[in-house]
Amino acid sequence: MRVRLDISYAGAAFHGWATQRGLRTVQGELETWLARLLRCDAVALTVAGRTDAGVHARGQVAHFDLPEEFSVSDFEELELVRRLDRVLPSDVVVRKISLAPPGFDARFSAIWRRYVYRLADGTFDPLAAGYVAKVISPVDVTLLNQVSGVLLGLHDFVAFCKYRSGATAIRTLQRVSAERVGEIIELTVQADAFAHSMVRSLTGALLQVAAGRRDESWLKALLDRSDRCGEIPVMPAKGLTLEAVGYPPDCELEQRATQARMLRELN
Amino acid sequence: MRVRLDISYAGAAFHGWATQRGLRTVQGELETWLARLLRCDAVALTVAGRTDAGVHARGQVAHFDLPEEFSVSDFEELELVRRLDRVLPSDVVVRKISLAPPGFDARFSAIWRRYVYRLADGTFDPLAAGYVAKVISPVDVTLLNQVSGVLLGLHDFVAFCKYRSGATAIRTLQRVSAERVGEIIELTVQADAFAHSMVRSLTGALLQVAAGRRDESWLKALLDRSDRCGEIPVMPAKGLTLEAVGYPPDCELEQRATQARMLRELN
Question: Is A124 close to B85, i.e. CB distance below 8 A?
Answer without folding.
Answer: no
